[in-house]
């Protein structure tokens, strides 16, 4: 490893050693080679191109998908003393002219640009006159037609191969299955030998998936553990997003909305509040989040089924980027399965694409209904593996299984005898022998399946039907009102009557009087909590004076290290991970003063 790379790591970023494959990747690119980097969110992808860009002669060109993301990354780099800037359509003319002068003068280490801006007339031609140290394409899965965030403008980035054939190219992503990886490599002409696959595991995230029972009550119970922490709540529709945000505000949370139906200025204002705040909840559709650089997102909750495992992995990956503990909760029900299937069938995509999307939905349902370790199923989808993790709901409390063959036969028979046109709630009522006018009106109180399911309650029957839908034994009328019918596999099941192991829904939890601390809060010892909060307050004050997100000053993890180490001098503070020279010069006195005022080394211990 060139000494200059380690020196940059220490002096600029404040770390003594690289993590995982970072060192190999940095050395590879500094030597002038291309690289494809697949590394989990929070694994340090940005260092893999930032350090080579600083170490190599010239300016690093970084293609990034979102203006807000670029602004945050530029702000963080400038805080660390790196000469960075972003070229985008929002720049006033005088600032744009000044930026082009800096580019021409070789005064920048890194230039960030959106693909749409890069492809505008004249931009590439002007950049060809500058000396480029490397070209890095972040969120590279966006160029793949098989990727879940496909963007046509990314598809055109192969022009960079022809325009800059001798400049090292990097493609970086946290989310790419094998077809997506192959397409990225081929499109950008990066050799398989230049691919670095660092794995997908995010061990600091605790995964939990539950049946929708009372979603708002379930979410409220989840949020009780995350008081004073930032997080994201994903909803499928714009209306539900607004309604959920309003409800959370009424419950006392600082909650904001974000979706494509909002005015652009309102969306940007809410995003800035989220980025700059320390206890803000963003309720959003998938329009929010790609490349979010906020490291202290402590939780992500899905109130509806996401589109695929790739989308789920990408969206949950926005939690815990700083490496501290984080939680992911997903709630879903049978109606979610039907809605996602409807989206696929009603799309204008060719049949091959629809077939792939059906397979992706099946894989997500497999993750949702698994009785084994969630992390094993999640990583297995991407060709990765792990031992049972101990940090997901099924590891912590393994679900009870039962042979549901008889229950499935009863449910399928009831669907058949009621005409294969009624929804889940009606079928459950018939199975339980409910005394209601609608059942009597249709004469279904006289059929053989009326009342044959009293061994289970309504919650259990809903869980059984949801699993039969997930297993493709039951179809849902996508165009109508959710009527259930027997799928071809369901007819095979009725004929063959095989064993069928199903999950018993987890028992409802009684609300606890005492609120547990979140895992991230518990990660900071009680003895350090007071100083940690004082350091956070000082950070917030500084960030507000500069109008930057607090985390570009120092991450929570660095503040926790400062609270534990309690340095009393500049030399001692320089040893704390995450404190580079520029930040030490700029902020050392302020934070050392807070520590001294708290009592210095060893206080409260």
UniProtKB/TrEMBL annotation:
Residues 525-605 form the HRDC domain. SUPFAM superfamilies: HRDC-like (SSF47819), P-loop containing nucleoside triphosphate hydrolases (SSF52540), Winged helix' DNA-binding domain (SSF46785). Its EC number is 5.6.2.4. Its cofactor is Zn(2+); Mg(2+). PROSITE patterns: HELICASE_ATP_BIND_1, HELICASE_CTER, HRDC. One of its GO terms (biological process) is DNA repair. Transmembrane segments: none annotated. Gene3D superfamilies: HRDC domain (1.10.150.80), P-loop containing nucleotide triphosphate hydrolases (3.40.50.300), Winged helix-like DNA-binding domain superfamily/Winged helix DNA-binding domain (1.10.10.10). It catalyses: Couples ATP hydrolysis with the unwinding of duplex DNA by translocating in the 3'-5' direction. One of its GO terms (cellular component) is cytoplasm. Residues 218-362 form the Helicase C-terminal domain. Pfam families: DEAD (PF00270), Helicase_C (PF00271), HRDC (PF00570), RecQ_Zn_bind (PF16124), RQC (PF09382). One of its GO terms (molecular function) is four-way junction helicase activity. The keyword Hydrolase applies. Residues 26-194 form the Helicase ATP-binding domain. Keywords: ATP-binding, DNA damage, DNA recombination, DNA repair, DNA-binding, Helicase, Hydrolase, Isomerase, Metal-binding, Nucleotide-binding, Zinc. NCBIfam families: recQ (TIGR01389), recQ_fam (TIGR00614). Belongs to the helicase family. RecQ subfamily. This is DNA helicase RecQ. It comes from Consotaella salsifontis.
